[in-house]
Amino acid sequence: MSASADESVHPTVVKAAAWAWRLLVLFAAVLAVLLVVRRLEVIVVPVALALMMSALLLPGVDWLDRRGTPRGLAVFLLLLGGLAVLAGLLSFVVDQFIDGVPGLVEQVTAVVNSTQHWLVEGPLHLSSEQIANVGDTVVNGLRSNQAKLTSGALSTAETLTKIVTGAFVVLFTLIFFLYGGRDIWRFTVRFFPGDVRERVHAAGIAGFESLIGYIRATFLVALVDAVGIGIGLAIMAVPLALPLASLVFLGAFIPLVGAVLTGLLAVLVALIAKGWIYGLITLGLIIAVNQLEAHVLQPLVMGRAVSIHPLAVVLGISTGGILAGIVGALLAVPTIAFIDRAVRALLSSGVEPAAEGVSTDPPGAAAPPH
């Protein structure tokens, strides 16, 4: 009875059912992994950030190591130099922000006063009482939501604690990745069956090479975006030009959308501080820089490092943003690039030879001792 019942089912339905339950199992496995990652976000995210930073700093550490510098000293010098540059830039940006905010506040106040005057004396002929009522409504709204603001402050304090904890994890993980990445990767590969270890080893190399190329290309693209927009804002004497350019630099690490969103903030500041003409000029500057990035920098620089379809980039950023906010959007594309290259190498018929000048060491590997 069972055999005859099976024979009565169309082969297409049988194949569809076979595909369906297998896809459900894969979906459940992916969902389980995402739940574990979400649960261990305080650990997973710092480790991922450390891996990205190691992709940026590893070539410099290897260069010093090849010239006779002890590996530990090379790691120390690169980290110390990187932290010094980062601290100097942040200090300079914060000083510029502190110096520029008072002037921006005065300009915003003047714009608000002129807007109120136009609303009263202009074609709308609103009464001063109506304008005052708007201000009272805003104040009352803030007072009525005081509890929510307090809970938001507590949430901010909790977030700050996570950031500090994550920073320590990033630092220590980065040190171990730069110093002993080869040993860490070899230990990890041992967990796989012996007949696939070589292929897994090659997949890790390919994925990490893709990550190195992505980080280098993204850094260059972000630097060009920030310099171009920063020079334009400085020429127009827009307040907070340097902090805004720094935000553009950081935002550019989220492909396609990061530089646009931070650039719109610069447009808003220019519009408030200098008027609609400067706002339109700033908007044109943002569009020009993004066109340069999309049609010149991305194909020439990023295209050589990774080859990911723009749709995959957009969907990856959206998914990462939904799952983990800004950090998820930041890590989405490099994760896709790593997985894409690693899976290609894993599924290839043979282990591809390394390109000339490319190390065959595993991800984050240390150079061989002298």
UniProtKB/TrEMBL annotation:
Main location group: membrane
Task: Locate the transmembrane regions by residue number.
Answer: 19-37, 43-61, 73-94, 163-181, 219-242, 248-268, 275-292, 312-339
Listed A to Z, the keywords are: Cell membrane, Membrane, Transmembrane, Transmembrane helix, Transport
Q: How does it sit in the membrane?
A: Multi-pass membrane protein
UniProt subcellular location: Cell membrane
UniProt cross-references to Pfam families, sorted A to Z: AI-2E_transport
Q: Which InterPro entries is this protein grouped with?
A: AI-2E-like
| Sequence similarity | Belongs to the autoinducer-2 exporter (AI-2E) (TC 2.A.86) family.
Q: Any idea what this protein is called?
A: AI-2E family transporter
Its taxonomic path starts at: Bacteria, Bacillati, Actinomycetota, Actinomycetes, Mycobacteriales
